[in-house]
Amino acid sequence: MELKPHFKIMIVEDNDFYNKLLTRHIQNYISPIAVSQGFTFELFCYTTFKDFSLNLNDEIDFILCDYFLNDGYTAINLLELVNKLIKRVRVIVISKSQDIKTSIRTLLKGAVEFLAKDRETLKKSGHILEEMIYELLEKRRNTKLN
After folding, report:
1. 46: which residues sit within 8 A by CB, 6+ positions away?
2. Fewer CB atoms inside 10 A, N or C side of the chain?
3. In angstroms, what CA-CA distances link 114 with 87, 99, 125, 131, 143?
4. Does residue 67 contact residue 75 with C-beta atoms inside 8 Å?
5. CA triplet 36, 39, 129: central angle to 5 degrees?
């Protein structure tokens, strides 16, 4: 029996309300795709950088994080930690800050996407995550064929 592909997604957002909103959106958006494409996924949600860092491991596939986190941490700190521990994780940074320097800095540190928080952010985050999941599924299929 072949195991279904399984993805682990972390959400790091210090605003409890937005954390729950983003989590619920990703859960509702990805669930029907998972059923139709034959994969499973888990969501892990954190409101502090400390909790995130204690739970970070090499099985994580995707991270959606706010730029400004609690206790003076930012997505830059998160990306530096991720780069030390995990090479293959894909990080999407979401921020109220629409400063071009901030977005470029996160991309140079390894983020795959920078989204400005606006009324379209939830929808965009789901679409981007979906595209990245399809990309990984395709790579796995191609690896099995070769």
Report:
1. 10, 11, 12, 13, 19, 52, 55
2. N
3. 19, 11, 10, 15, 29
4. yes
5. 85
Residue numbers in the chain where pLDDT is lower than 70: 1-2, 145-146
| Cα–Cα dist 13/31, whole Å | 21
Helix axes 121-145, 16-37, angle to 10 degrees: 40
HEC profile for the chain? Answer: CCCCCEEEEEEECCCHHHHHHHHHHHHHHHHHHHHHHCCEEEEEEECCHHHHHHHCCCCCCEEEEECECHHHCEHHHHHHHHHHHCCCCEEEEEECCCCHHHHHHHHHCCCCEEEECCCCHHHHHHHHHHHHHHHHHHHHHHHHHC
pLDDT at 146: 59
Query: Tell me, what amino acid is at 95?
Result: S
In the numeric block, which tokens belong to residue 48?
């502090």
Is 117 within 8 Å of 21 (Cβ atoms)?
no
